[in-house]
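Lay summary

Proteins are chains of building blocks that fold into shapes. Our project writes down both the chain and a compact code for its shape. Here are two examples, one after the other.
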Amino acid sequence: MTNAVDADVAAREARAHQRSEQLLDAAARLMEREGSHAVSMQALAAEAGVSVGLIYRYFGSKDEILLAVIVHVLDDFATAVPAAIAEVGDDPVERLAAAFRGYCEVIDRHRHAAVLTYREGKSLSEEGRQRIKDLEVETTEPLRRAIADGIEAGALREVEPELVSANLVLLAHAWALKHWYFERTLSFDEYVRQQFALALHGIVNPKQKRRYAALLEG
């Protein structure tokens, strides 16, 4: 009986998670297209293909939905980037490359939400904006740590890890912000490889260029 109950609970949780993802994806698309202030719950329900009542089962207000859309992306960073790093070895530059790719992959999955963050973040409450700032610091930590490890190992020059990690984050976000432009000439993989190669050229220890030739070639 216990196993049956556990399975039923797990199934309900999976359905709730899937429904929440559906609503957040629809909200990101609609709010990016129309602006958060112009979006009604009825319009969101139509975009998601659900009833207004169902939306209120998950979210209490439009502002709550906007915050949830942004936090959803940051939660994905918190899971996906460390997982990407874990798939490579101990070399700090390889780990940095994996972290950057993982960051870009999250942005690619949530392009509408990433653009929405820039356009509508100011609409959040002060508490909401502070929560987003705190989460952004946390999710860029794997990049900063890989850079610091690369400096310590002599693979990277003596650069400021905070600055370089922030630059890499901006490059990742640019895939969403300027997607209409980049997609004309670059695939996602080409964008990631070439942007990382350009960044690495600026921070790699000159004595280590041969070691990381493949990454530098993009």
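And here is the second example, written the same way.
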Amino acid sequence: MRIARLLTLSTLALATPTAAAPPSRPAMNKPAQKKPAEAKPTEAKPFDLEAETRAWHQKRLANLTSEDGWLSLVGLHWLKEGDNRVGSAEDNEVVFPTGTPAHLGTLTRKGGTVTLSVQPGLSLTRAGQPFTGGELGASEGDQDVLALGSLRFYLIRRGERLGIRVKDAEAPARKQFHGIPTWPVSAAWRVEGRFEPAANPRKVPVPNVLGTVEEMTSPGTIVFTLQGEEYRLEPVQESSTEPLFIIFGDLTNRTDSYGAGRFLYADPPKDGKVVLDFNRAYNPPCAFSPYATCPLPPPQNRLKVRVEAGEKRYGDH
């Protein structure tokens, strides 16, 4: 949160004439004009780190627990070439949760294209409109999400792999969610770092839980100090106007925080500086569901220090 500056107003000096000349003609009775009200100075709100962090975390939990949040994730099915039958019956290649039709239809993969033929009589929607079958998009945006009752499913691409991700608003993980423990908010974990831009944005290999590696674009390196020691983190970024995304690990991963590391966002560099607020370090989706495809911290982002800030481990993850 940026702090607004106080506005200052100058005082107007009113000159008083020593003598008033008599009017040459009778003055007309004009209504007195009101003096425009002067704008009051804007008061800057003091930055309250704890209040700001708590507000941010409440919003983060609201997203996590929403009907299509990560807690609703109940399945991920990789498609083979050819036909993949879909439904809740065990004889399907893609088995949906109990309560959905035993045989919903067939997903057919031909190279990089997937189509769905729906069983007659079933009512699916896509982007709120009736869907009776056809090619599936893989943007993972709302326009490509198919719905059947409380179920939502859509196509995802991970390299050469194509899969169906399934979410259910009635998922037990969502219904039984009990909050995420966090470390106390502390100004000691809000640090300013020096940004060292790369000569050209470079591709950084980032591993993921699938065992594959994805090339992501990094604009440079953040150099900062914690407890008297200098550390470095390499963020990734979709574009120069987007926030910096940092996938990092630290020594708390062994016992207190999620074992596969945590995520952190930071504003783009300003005047060569980046603020890292580890109070906003949060667990990746894989901490809540085995069906997420999370990136893992690259070797250069594994800090040899305990970052006792942000979210702690959730449940037995």
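What can we say about the second shape? The helical segments are 49-64, 172-175.
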